[in-house]
Design brief:
Blueprint lengths: L1 E3 L24 H17 L2 E8 L5 E9 L2 E9 L5 E10 L2 E6 L2 E5 L10 H7 L3 E3 L9 E6 L2 E6 L3 H20 L7 H14 L1 E6 L5 E4 L6 E8 L16 E3 L13 E7 L14 E6 L5 E3 L7 E6 L5 E8 L4 E8 L5 E4 L9 E6 L5 E7 L8 E7 L5 E15 L5 E10 L4 E10 L4 E6 L1 E6 L4 E5 L5 E4 L7 E2 L7 E6 L5 E6 L7 E6 L5 E3 L6 E6 L1
Parallel strand pairs: 1-8, 7-14
Antiparallel strand pairs: 2-3, 2-13, 3-4, 4-5, 5-6, 6-7, 9-10, 10-11, 11-12, 12-13, 15-16, 15-37, 16-17, 18-19, 19-20, 20-21, 22-23, 23-24, 24-25, 25-26, 26-27, 27-28, 29-30, 30-31, 31-32, 33-34, 34-35, 35-36
Helix pairs in contact: 3-4
InterPro entries: 6-blade_b-propeller_TolB-like (IPR011042)
C-alpha cells in the first residue's frame, strides 16, 4: 500500500528557507509534491514493486518485497544474513478479501491479520512495509544536507514533546545503569543511540523523481527503501492461488455456534523451545477456543500487541499496540466482526507509551496505565477513557502500579502498588484500592491481585509465594487449596468462580490451567508446544 506520510518517528518539521547547502539547492516542496502525486496516480492504474529493509541484529536484515496491483498485493519476507545469504520466511497473498499465507511447510487461507505467524515480529515489519511518499501537509522535512544523486537528504531534529520524552527515557536509563549491579547487555548501546538522537535527530532521504521517502525513522525504527519500480505488467501467477491447496482458517474462533464463553486471550510464541535464552521472546496475543483448540490472532493491523481484553459481549477487543512510525504505544478498540479500528484517548494518551488497558464491567470506561518518564523510574499514570467519545482524563498521581481490577460498582479499582527504597534496592508490594479521584488505600502486602466478583473477595499472592483470598478491606486471609505453588499470572471469569493461571516449572515451559477457586483444583488446558503467557478470560 502507498501511504502519504504526515508524520515520521518523532522529528519536527522546520522551515528551510532558500539557503544553499554546500553549493546545492534543496528541491522545491511543490516539486516533491508533484512527484509524489504522479507516483500515487500511477499506482492506481498500474502495478508497482518495492523492497524495504529493516536492521535487526548482528548485521542481519529483514527484507520485505511487495508487489501491488489495484487491491491485490503479495508480500514476501526474507532474512538476510551478514554473509549475504537469504532465506524466505513468509509469503502473504492478499486478494479477494482473504490472506493466503505460506510459511515453512504450511499453507492456509484466513481473514486479514488473523494469521498466527510462527514469528509475531513479522506483523511489526508488515506494518512498516508500506511505501511512504511525501505529502505537502508535512511542510518542510528538516534541515537540508545535500543531494545524493536524485535523492534529497535532510536532518530532522526532535520537536519539544518528543525531546522531553526521549530526554526522560535517557535520564532514566542512566539512573538504572548507575544502580544496576551488572548492566544488561545492550544498555550502553541504547544509551548512545538516545544520546545521538537527542543531539542529531534522524536522517530523512526523499527521492525527488518519485516522491518516495527512502529512509526515515529513529532509534530502532529506521527503514531503507532499496528499490521502487513502476511496472508496466505483472505476471498473473504473482497473485494466483488456484494451483495450491490451502487449509481453510477463515471460520470464527467462536465456531459456528458463535459461543464466546469458551474463548480466551493468551500470548503465544509457537517456536519457543525449553532452554531458549529469551523468554520475553516473539509473542503475540491470540484468541484460543478452549473446547476446539481453534486459534486466531487478535486482528490488530498496526503492528504488535502489548495487552488485550475483551468487551463483555466479545464484540470488541481493546488493545495497546506499537505504532512504529508514531513512536508511541496506542490504545485501540477493534471490532471483531468488521475488523474496524478505533483509536481511543486524547492528549497526553495519544503521544505516550500505554502499557495496559482494562475495560469496565459495563464496557463504558477503559482504564489505561501510561508510562510517566518525567515522574521517575517505574512510574505510571492512570487515565480513564470514555469508550463512546474516545476522550480520556488523567486520574491521580503517578505510582508504580499494575493489575488493575474494576470494582463491581465501577467506583474504583483493586490494584497492585509497589513502593521502592534506596534507588530500587528494596521493593514492597501492596494490595490497594483506588477511587476514581486517584486516592489510594493500602489493604495488605501481596502481589498479583484479582478481584472475584460474586464473592467480593480478592485473590492474591502473599510473601510466602502462595495464593490466598481476602476481603475488600484486606482482612480474613484464606489459603486457596494447597496454596497453588508455582502458579501465577491470573485472570478470573465473570463470576469469579474459575481462574486462568499459568503453571511454571514444567519441562515444556509455562502452561495454562483452569483453577476452581473454591477447591483449588487445577485442570491443565491442552495447548501446542511453544511459550504461553498472560491468559485472559
Amino acid at each position: 500500500m502507498l501511504r502519504f506520510l504526515p508524520f515520521l518517528v518523532l522529528p519536527v518539521l522546520i522551515s528551510l528557507g532558500e539557503e544553499m547547502v554546500q553549493g546545492q539547492q534543496p528541491p522545491r516542496l511543490q516539486d516533491l509534491e508533484a512527484a509524489a502525486q504522479r507516483t500515487l496516480e500511477y499506482s492506481e492504474r498500474k502495478p508497482i514493486r518495492w523492497e524495504i529493509a529493516f536492521e535487526v541484529s548482528n548485521g542481519r536484515e529483514i527484507l520485505v518485497e511487495v508487489v501491488m496491483k489495484g487491491d491485490r498485493q503479495r508480500s514476501r519476507f526474507f532474512l538476510e544474513q551478514a554473509t549475504g545469504s537469504t532465506s524466505l520466511l513468509l509469503e502473504i497473498i492478499d486478494t479477494d478479501g482473504f490472506w493466503y499465507v505460506s510459511e515453512k511447510n504450511t499453507r492456509y487461507k484466513c481473514l486479514p491479520y488473523e494469521a498466527c505467524f510462527s514469528s509475531a515480529s513479522m506483523y511489526g515489519f508488515l506494518a512498516r512495509s508500506d511505501v511512504k511518499i511525501y505529502d505537502q501537509e508535512m511542510g518542510s522535512i528538516g534541515e537540508f544536507e545535500k543531494m545524493d544523486g536524485a535523492v534529497a537528504v535532510y536532518r530532522a531534529p526532535l520537536d519539544d514533546q518528543a525531546r522531553s520524552m526521549v530526554s526522560a527515557a535517557y535520564e532514566q536509563l542512566l539512573n538504572l545503569m548507575a544502580i544496576a549491579p551488572k548492566p544488561k547487555p545492550g544498555m550502553e548501546e541504547k544509551l548512545k543511540t538516545y544520546h545521538d538522537f537527542l543531539n542529531s535527530g534522524s536522517q530523512v532521504r526523499i527521492n525527488t523523481r518519485t516522491g518516495v521517502i527512502e529512509q526515515a525513522g529513529a532509534l530502532q525504527h529506521v527503514f531503507h527503501v532499496r528499490s521502487f519500480q513502476k511496472l508496466r505488467v505483472v505476471s498473473p501467477a504473482t497473485f494466483d492461488v488456484s494451483d495450491q491447496e490451502w487449509e481453510d482458517r477463515t471460520g470464527s474462533v467462536a465456531g459456528e455456534s458463535n459461543d464466546w464463553d469458551n474463548v480466551i486471550l493468551i500470548q503465544n510464541d509457537p517456536v519457543w523451545k525449553p532452554g531458549s535464552k529469551d523468554e520475553d521472546g516473539d509473542r503475540d496475543f491470540i484468541m484460543l477456543n478452549l473446547e476446539t483448540g481453534t486459534k486466531r490472532r487478535v486482528p490488530f493491523a498496526m503492528g504488535t500487541i502489548g495487552s488485550a481484553c475483551f468487551s463483555s459481549d466479545h464484540r470488541f477487543c481493546f488493545v495497546t499496540g506499537w505504532l512504529p512510525y508514531d513512536g508511541t504505544i496506542g490504545v485501540f478498540a477493534i471490532d471483531l466482526e468488521t475488523h474496524e479500528h478505533f483509536r481511543l484517548g486524547s492528549e497526553p494518551l495519544l503521544r505516550g507509551l500505554n502499557l495496559s488497558a482494562e475495560i469496565s464491567p459495563d464496557d463504558s470506561l477503559l482504564a489505561v496505565l501510561q508510562v510517566d518518564y518525567e515522574a521517575g523510574p517505574l512510574q505510571f499514570r492512570l487515565h480513564l477513557v470514555d469508550v463512546e467519545s474516545g476522550d480520556s482524563t488523567q486520574v491521580g498521581q503517578p505510582y508504580d502500579m499494575a493489575y488493575l481490577n474494576w470494582l463491581p460498582d465501577y467506583s474504583g479499582f483493586v490494584l497492585l502498588v509497589r513502593e521502592h527504597e534506596g534507588q530500587l534496592k528494596k521493593t514492597t508490594h501492596y494490595i490497594c484500592r483506588m477511587d476514581l479521584n486517584g486516592e489510594v488505600t493500602k489493604l495488605c502486602q501481596g502481589t498479583q491481585p484479582q478481584l472475584l466478583r460474586d464473592s467480593g473477595r480478592i485473590l492474591f499472592e502473599a510473601d510466602d509465594d502462595l495464593w490466598y483470598t481476602c476481603s475488600l478491606e484486606g482482612k480474613d486471609h484464606q489459603k486457596v487449596g494447597d496454596g497453588l505453588p508455582k502458579f501465577g499470572f491470573l485472570s478470573a471469569d465473570k463470576e469469579g468462580e474459575q481462574i486462568l493461571m499459568m503453571k511454571f516449572g514444567g519441562r515444556d515451559g509455562p502452561r495454562p490451567h483452569i483453577i476452581d477457586v473454591e477447591t483449588g483444583d487445577a485442570e491443565p488446558i491442552e495447548v501446542d508446544t511453544g511459550f504461553w503467557a498472560q491468559p485472559r478470560w
